[in-house]
Amino acid sequence: MSELDVTLTVNGERRRARVEPRRTLADLLRQELGLTGTHLACEHGVCGSCTVLVDGEAVRSCLMFGVQADGSEVTTVEGLAGDEPGSLGPVQRAFWETHGLQCGFCTPGFVVSVTAFLRECPDPDDEQIRAALSGNLCRCTGYQGIVRAVRLAARLCRNEKDHDERGGGELEVTGD
Amino acid sequence: MCVSAKGAYLKAAVFEYHQPASAEAAVEMLAELGEDAKVLAGGQSLVPVMAMRLGRPEHLVDVNRVAGLGGVTRSDGMLRVGALTRHRALERDLVIGRDVPLLARAAPYIGHFQIRNRGTLGGSLAHADPAAELPAVAVALDAGIEAHSVRGVRRIPADDFFVSAFTTVLEPDELVTAVHLPVWGAGSGFAVAELTRRHGDFAIAGAACGVQVAGGRIIRAAVALFGMGSVPVRAWSAEQALADTLAAEADLTAIGSEAVAALHPPADAHGSAAYRRRVGAHMVTRALRTALAEAQRGSS
Are residues A131 and A118 in the same domain? Predict the structure, then answer.
C-alpha cells in the first residue's frame, strides 16, 4: 500500500506528512501531527465530534481523506484558543462559563462548528442556534447549556471585535 | 478493525487513490479501471460506506480537483449546474436561487451545514438514495443529467436515470459532469416539505413541488415524492388534476391523496406503508400550498 506526501497549513503552521490514502483527515491530524484535540467518535459522519475548518468551512474530518487536504488550510480546536498560552478563545470561554460541557468529549467539535456558524451569523436567535447545533451530538448536557454558550459566544465575539477596535484591557464575561 | 504498521486503527479498506485534473483524464481512468473504481466527489455518503466496509472499492477517482465541474451557466431557458456544486452553494448561489429556486429550497434539508459544505449535486444524484431530496427535485423538474465517458457525452432524462435504490443507469465508466434544469419564469412557485425524526435526517416521506400560474389558472405543475419507494416518484395524476384549474379553487388535500393513491411505500421501524402514504399525501399538500401562494404573489 503506497503512501502519499501531504503538505497543508494547520493552525497557521505549514505541516508535512506521509500517509496512506485511506487515512482520514482526522487520522492525519491526530496520529501524524499529534493534534489530538480533534476527537473521533462515530467515524461515519453522524456525531460531529471531529469537526474542523478546511479553508474556513466546517467539515467532518472523518469524511475526508487526509490526502484530499493537500494544499488546504485547516483549523482545529487547538487553533481556536486565546492568544496567551493556555488561555481560551471566546467560544471556548463561553462554553466554560455557561456549563456548555460535562465530560467534554464532544466539545471540540461543538467549538469548531459554533465558530464557523457565528462568523456567518453573528447575532443568531435561538432557532438558528438550535439548527446550527443539529450536526453535533452531546450525550451529557441535554444541550441547554450549549445553547446558552452559543448565545454568550455570539456576544463575546461581537464585543471582542469592538474591543479590538478600541484596543486592549480585560473583557468582562457574564452568563445570562 | 484493521491495525496499520504505525499501530493506528483504520476504518476503510485499502484502495489506490487517483486525482485527475480534467474530466477527460477522469473518464479515461474510469474506463481503464472499470467496476473496481468509484468516483469520489463530496464523499459524504461514500466515505461512511467505506468506513463501515459496506463498500471496498479498489480505486478511488477523486474529482474534487477536476477543472470545469463547478459553475452555473444559463442558455436557452435552461440552467446548467456543474456536478461538483456543493449543497451550500445551491443554498447561497444567487443565480440558482433566482432561476431554479427548487434547488435552493431543497438544499437546507440535506444533512447538516458541515455535510452541505462538502456534499455535491452530482454526487447526490449518482448515489441515488431513495429518501434524498435532490433526486426528487431532478425528477420533478425534468432535469437532464449530463454524463461523460470515453465514448462521449450523453444527457439522461432524470425520469430514466434512477433504476432502484442506490442504482442508476450510469455505466461504471461514466462521470456525471452537470445537471441541466429548466428555468420556469414568472408566476411560478416552488417548495419542498418533508417529515424527519430529527433535523437533518433522511426523510420518512417528502415532496418537491412547483406550480406556475397565469391569469389565475395553473398552467404548469410538477410534483415528485421521495422516501415513498425505491426511486423518487413523479405524481403524474396529481399534476393532471392540477392542470388548468383555477388556482384559488384547487383542492390541495384531494391532490395530496391523489399523488399517493397508486404508491406502495416501504414499511420500516419509522412507519408502516399506510402511515408513509398518509405522510406523503400531507407533504404534497403542504408543499403545493406554499408553492401556490408564491406563484399567485408573482403572477400577473
Answer: yes
A127: containing domain? 81-166
Asked if residue B263 and residue B284 are part of one domain, the reply reads yes
State whether residue A166 sits within 8 Å of chain B by CB.
Answer: no
**How big is the A-B interface in CB pairs under 8 Å?**
90
Model confidence at A65, pLDDT cuts 50, 70, 90, reads very high
- For residue A158, is it within any domain? yes
The complex's ipTM works out to: 0.93
Q: Which of A57, A63, A113 sits opposite B44 (nearest CB)?
A: A63
CB of A58 within 8 Å of any CB in chain B?
A: yes
How many Cβ atoms sit within 10 Å of the Cβ of residue B66? Answer: 25
Same domain assignment for residues A62 and A92: no
HEC states along A105-142?
A: CCHHHHHHHHHHHHHHCCCCCHHHHHHHHCCCCCCCCC
Kindly state the DSSP code that residue B23 receives in the 8-state scheme. H
- In a domain, residue B67? The reply is no
pTM of the model: 0.94
- On whether both A99 and A68 belong to a single domain, the answer is no
Residues B168 and B221 in one domain: no
* Residue B79: closest CA among B190, B181, B156, B155: B181
B120 and B53 co-located in one domain: no
Residues of B in Cβ contact (< 8 Å) with A49: none
Nearest-CA distance from A63 to chain B in Å? 6
Mean pLDDT, rounded, for B192-215: 94
The model's pLDDT over A93-149, given as tens digits with 9 standing for 90+, comes to 999 999 999 999 999 999 999 999 999 999 999 999 999 999 999 999 999 999 999
B44:A135 CB<8 A: no
pLDDT digits (tens, 9 = 90+) for B141-152: 999 999 999 999
- pLDDT recorded at residue B7: 57
Q: State how far the alpha carbon of B119 is from the alpha carbons of A29, B56, B138, B264, B292, in Å.
A: 22, 20, 16, 30, 30
Chain B residue with minimum CA distance to A113: B114
Do residue B87 and residue B36 come from a single domain?
no
